[in-house]
Amino acid sequence: MAVSFALSSAERLGWCFLRPTTAATGFRRAAGNSAAASVSVQDGHRKLKTEADLPEIKIFTMLYQMLFKGYLNSVHELQLYQKQVYGPLWKINAGNLQGISITSVELLEELLRKDEKYPCRGYMTLWTEHRDLRGISYGPFTEEGEKWYKLRAVLNKRMLHPKDSLQYGDVVNAVITDFIKRIYYLREMSPTGDLVSNLTNELYRFSLEGIASILFETRIGCLEKEIPAETQEFINSIAQMFTYNMHVALLPNWTRNYLPFWQKYIDGWDGIFKFGTKMINLKMEAIQTRLDTNQEVAGEYLTYLLSSGKMSCKDVYGSVSEVLLAGVDTTSNTMLWALYLLSKDPAAQETLHQEVTKVLKGDRIPTAEEVNSMPFLKAVIKETLRLYPVVPVNSRLIAESEVIIGEYLFPKKTTFNLFHYAISHDEKVFPEPQKFKPERWLRDGRTRPNPFGSIPFGFGVRACVGRRIAELEMHLALARLIKLFEMRPDPTVGEVKANFRSVLVPNKKVNLHFVERQKTET
């Protein structure tokens, strides 16, 4: 559910390019600033460098790399190239957009362990501009400071703690049951009798139905043969917002009055909040009806938010809509990549199938608690998120004080770009980083990776509020699917690669054969 992290990063990446600097002695001029001294700073017995000693990012080199070197749709792969050329640390300096890029797991850990009381995500203008334009409250991904902290304290309850997520097991399983019915229907409609086409779209519908069932405490019809028009409009709005966010990030503000991208981007957001607001209003009306008739107000997440008195209605509108948006992409994309990877690795798929059937005898549906008895299942999801992190780049703003990272001293209000994709594909952290190896995450006596090598849900108090829900959905869904079907790739599709669309998505439609397994369990 960490999708919003990518928006701030997309804004920066659109404006940056890289220019090597000379060795760190003497003086040089920083763009748009007074002379910046490249000097040593004393820290105990260490002599520290400053950001003036780092390579620097500028627009034309980045545009060259994206347009002429072929990284336009694969900004995540550009991280690997830049790390190879410029090392673990470099500077972005593009007008008002400033930042230090980190591609080393050691430096990443050092930075995050120095988080402030109210960790700041940094530049989120693309999201906050829409909120300000429409008078909508900021949510957990756009709010900052003490107000964010108080907001998260309310949102965390009934969602973030592992025990809290267990209460949603029956709700999630009900959605998975309907998704499996749809898989059977799609198989029957296919020419081969077992092919599910455009799996991306199907998993998106499943994910939206799942998170909406938890947040709004009602079903919205995503898994019906015909999706309700307003639900389809919401799905289209999400796609439209993400499609045009890169356009508005790349283009200067003065183009908004002449090119259509800004208005299409805003229209996408309007559609997202229109749907979220309607669903919240329906729940408010239901609660009021029960109060008017002296009935007990009972429910789960949204009922708790609305009836607790700890959040204003305006805050609920902003927060729930943001959580809804973030949850859909996290679950759908990770599930897609997991099924695709397993279809290409029969041995790993068989290991997972054996584990699931050992725990789940007969036709029994797994409970949330039983997921803890399936370590390889959890490892498959972890390895999938390592290879395809939903958000390949994140950011942190150190706002209150200067900070030492590595051998460099940075002033307060420095923004750091955290290049998670480059770190999770570092062979020093993950041997054979391009290979799908779920076993690397097992607690069976082997040396396990540095935990900061892959942190798809973030770190610390600013970690993803919906992490436990997303994991619950993915674990239960994957366990049930792998128990019923063997996944096989569609040979007509060929190799599937990742494209960067603020989140990592497949570069083509993914079809998989869902071959029904023989029921041999007793």
Automatic annotation (TrEMBL):
Question: Where does the record place a coiled coil?
Answer: none
User: What is its cofactor?
Assistant: heme
Q: Which Pfam families match?
A: p450
Do the record's keywords include Disulfide bond?
A: no
Question: For this chain's UniProt record, which GO biological process terms are given?
Answer: calcitriol biosynthetic process from calciol; cholesterol metabolic process
GO cellular component terms, A-Z:
mitochondrion
List residues binding heme: C464
**GO MF:** cholesterol 26-hydroxylase activity; heme binding; iron ion binding; vitamin D3 25-hydroxylase activity
**Could you tell me the keywords of this UniProt record?**
Heme, Iron, Metal-binding, Monooxygenase, Oxidoreductase
- Family in the record: Belongs to the cytochrome P450 family.
Record PANTHER family: CYTOCHROME P450 (PTHR24279), CYTOCHROME P450 FAMILY 27 SUBFAMILY A MEMBER 1 (PTHR24279:SF123)
Q: What is this protein called?
A: Cytochrome P450 27A1.4
Can you name the source organism? Danio rerio (Zebrafish)
